[in-house]
Task: inverse folding
């Protein structure tokens, strides 16, 4: 086996798990899941059948990654954050044919106890603060907080808040890496 699996973890036959991944205590990975190299699945994580997790993602304790969720490379899921896959669930009505796709793009951070309502896309290197509820798409590099989540700033790829206005134009440098970021027409890009 090219990955580590704790003795209490359950990995169903058919699951694909990349080299160097770590599957910790009481994890359950369903048989259709595709998990990349170097991924860490913390204690009590559940991964559904129709889930794709990119290389080097970190999924902290008590996170359930339900069907129709895709995480690109390097996504961080904080402790006890929540994904959904049905927009209007009812116990007495089966809605498995109504699952909505959720996409979290490269390098994004989802803070502890935040909730991501199904059907949204979270842009590259976006940062969702602890406890926020995301119910609409999030721009790349956006810093989101609150219920419902609203943008209050921009974040660098290093994870530091950038000195840029919410809208308009501007340019700044990450204090840690020296990388330059430009805001134009409401979009932040790294130069």
Result:
């Amino acid at each position: 086996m090219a990955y580590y699996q704790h003795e209490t973890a359950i990995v169903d036959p058919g699951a694909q798990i990349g080299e160097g991944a770590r599957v910790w205590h009481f994890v359950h990975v369903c048989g259709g899941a595709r998990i990349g190299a170097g991924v860490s699945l913390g204690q009590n994580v559940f991964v559904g059948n129709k889930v794709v997790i990119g290389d080097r993602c970190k999924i902290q304790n008590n996170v359930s990654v339900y069907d129709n969720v895709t995480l690109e490379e390097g996504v961080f899921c904080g402790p006890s954050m929540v994904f959904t896959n049905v927009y209007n669930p009812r116990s007495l009505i089966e809605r498995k044919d109504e699952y909505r796709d959720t996409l979290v793009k490269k390098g994004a951070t989802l803070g502890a106890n935040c909730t991501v309502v199904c059907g949204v896309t979270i842009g590259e290197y976006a940062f969702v603060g602890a406890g926020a509820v995301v119910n609409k798409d999030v721009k790349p590099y956006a810093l989101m907080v609150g219920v419902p989540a609203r943008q209050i700033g921009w974040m660098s790829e290093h994870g530091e808040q950038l000195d840029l206005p919410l809208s308009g134009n501007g340019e700044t440098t990450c204090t840690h890496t020296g990388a330059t970021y430009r805001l134009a027409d409401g979009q932040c890009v790294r130069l």
